[in-house]
Structure formats: C-alpha cells, structure tokens
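Figure 2 data, in text form.
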Amino acid sequence: MLSYQHAYHAGNPADLHKHLVLAEMLTLLTRKARGISYLETHAGRGLYDLDSSESRKTAEAAEGINAISLPDCPLRTAVLATRARYGDAAYPGSPLIARTLLREQDRLHLMELHPAEHKALKRTLKSATTAVHHRDGYEGVLALSPPTPRKGLVLVDPSYEVKTEYAQVAAFTMKLLAKWPQACVMIWYPILPANRHNDLISGLKINHLRHEVGFTLKGGVGMTGSGLLLVNAPYGAENCLTRAQALGQPVLQMG
C-alpha cells in the first residue's frame, strides 16, 4: 500500500486548479437534461478538514483555497454547501464536488483502493446515485466502461508516487477510449523539476487540450505547478479552462 495521504495537501494550489476546472466542466456537461456518468480512478476520502493536524502540519491550504476569496462560481457553490453541512473548515474533495453539482439523473462511480480512505469515502458519499468501489482505479474504471449513461467524464488523478505512473496513465487512457470512445477524460499531473509529466504527454496518442499553471508552494521547494489534460473535450471546454484560470488568481499563474 502506497503512503500518500491527501489530507496533508487538501486545498493546496494544485487542488484549487483541479477543482476549479472540474466544477466548470461538470457545469458544462450538465447544461442539457440528459444524465451523465462521472468516474474517478483515485477518489480519496471526499471530505477534508482544513483545521486537522495533517492540514496544519503542511499549511498548504493557506497557499491555495484559503489565500483567495472565490467569486460566484460552481466551485464556490460546492464549498459553501460542504461548509453549511460540515463546518467552516470543511473542504470538498473531487467526489463531493461532483456529488454536490450533479443531479438525480447522473451517476457516480468512485474508485479508492486505500482501506481507510475508502471507508471514509463510503461514509461521506452515501447516495442511491453513487457507487463507491474498493478496487484499483484503473482496473475498476475499465471494467465499468462504457457506463450508463454513455455521456460522461472520467477524472484521473493519482499521486504519481511511482515514477512509471505517468506512462501508465497514458496507456490507461488509450485503453479506456478504446472501450468508451465517447468518454471525456480529465487527467491531472504535478509539475516537478524532474519533468516526468512529459512521459504522460508523449504517451497520449490523441488530440487533447493542455492547461498548466504555476504557483509558489512551500517557498518553491517541490511542486512548482499543476497540469491538466482534457481528452475528448466538449465544446466550451476551453472557456472552462480560461475561466478557472481567472477565478484562481492570484494564486494560479500562467504555466
């Protein structure tokens, strides 16, 4: 079992980037009444406490979500709904953002392999329209594809603790599209001095949108930015990226 625990990093600048774009994309995909499917490969626990000992230890939220005042936008809607239910220090992970913004006709399939994270996720995301799976995210999403409804979004955001995972994500995406050609795939990756994300980008043998932002985290030590790739992006996705960039300033700078 790998050691990564997202509680230490919840609400940091990379989370802000990913969640702003995710919320905008979900709003775009639900403009029409037809339901969508939302799948995640690495869901985490879904709900975080920014006053927890883990969050206070790294103080990364202070450089991300707590460093800005979000104007009216889909992510702000999700954050306010989460805090109304769980308290002022609560912060939604991507599964809870999706559950808050999606509708009764939409379906969620969330993969989480870590036992403790899966247990917490299942407790938080109890819903007739949400399935929480204790299984490998890549295997699980492939096994469930194509889902019903066929229109949908897959979020792929592993920790990349293993350096070969960049190439693995690219290979997984190509396998997924072979099974589910209609899928819109949103891939997150960290930007680090080693630039291993180039293995992911070079392995993605299909047209895609790329969006990168830079930021200063922990005085510039470690991660220096956050990247997203959108495969099979729907019409209007470029506007989602532009809007998310603007909403995240001044924390998020052009990559």
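Caption note: The chain has nine helices and ten strands.
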